[in-house]
Amino acid sequence: MTEDALRDDADHHFIDIERLNTATLEQLLHRAESFLGPDQLRRHRRRLFGETIALLFYEPSTRTRISFELAGKRLGADTILFHDTVSSARKGESIPDTLQTLIAMGIRYFVIRHGENGIMSRLASNLPDGVSLINAGEGTRAHPTQALLDALTLRFHRPEFPLLTVAILGDIRHSRVARSTAFILEKLGIGALRLVAPPPFLPDSTDPMPGDRLSHIETGLAGADVVIALRVQWERLGEGEISISKSEYQHAYRLNRATFERLTKPDAILMHPGPVNWGMELDPDLIQHPGNLIREQVHNGVAVRMAVIDWLRESYFAQRAQ
Ligand code: CP
């Protein structure tokens, strides 16, 4: 595939994994690896010199917000943090009007987190040429940079994707991470993907999300090379919406070190997008487990977000050169 075709595929925004092809994903992962080197600060600070990245978070975040801010700064950009609680959003200004206001100040990169499914595509469709939107977490639908950093982290330790069995364990139905990570693992040729959760937390049977649905943790994790555990999104659940209590969930699905070591392969890997509710989905005895890559995922998040921003920058200049 040509560079031009790859750029067309990215569409000048970064909205979800589904619309990216495998070659584009490989190139983004390769670019992220290049940003993990020891002299990255010295080498890359002029790439986005003079640009400003606005971070608009309509939902809480620690990892994604701060790693995007670091990524922008390490590429030489200024970063602006928009707080909806102290902005004119409180006076009724809509998100499209907010974006147009910031565009009028010369901002061309927008990193957005919002709870509404589908909002990223709608916002992107009304942006002028040369302005890029990056999805930093959208409802229950997509968290594409988390998927990229999951794939990058896993690849460092287990590059043989076609031979791997990955189990995603937890509240899959309400998890934007699970959805994006399932799609990226499928596109990168993972051997087997299992979605393991109690029935209320499994995706609908009509949902195209890849992966075999399993409700029993014993069969779901048996022989797995990788377990990606998820937080239960209790805050997304309406009163009486889910027929499982916190104590029932903990009893049947909380993973501890003994169960992890008994069910999975001897050198299995444990991942989690964070934040972890220790004691709910994972027992604290897994914090020191040698297969625990949770901190490494966080570390790789900065390089992945640098890669996405840099990819969009390059796309912009390629478009202008035509
Ligand atoms: N994984 C993740 O998105 O974490 P934050 O909500 O802290 O950004």
Q: What is the helical fraction, as a range of percent?
A: 25-40%
The secondary-structure element order is HHHEHEHEHEHEHEEHEHHEH
The low-confidence runs, each spanning 5 or more residues with pLDDT under 50, are: 1-9
**What small molecules are bound in this structure?**
phosphoric acid mono(formamide)ester
**Which percent band covers the strand fraction?**
5-15%
Structural class: alpha/beta
Key attributes of the depicted protein:
5-stranded parallel β-sheet; 4-stranded parallel β-sheet; 322 residues; 12 helices; alpha/beta; binds phosphoric acid mono(formamide)ester
Structure summary:
This protein is an alpha/beta fold and 322 residues long.
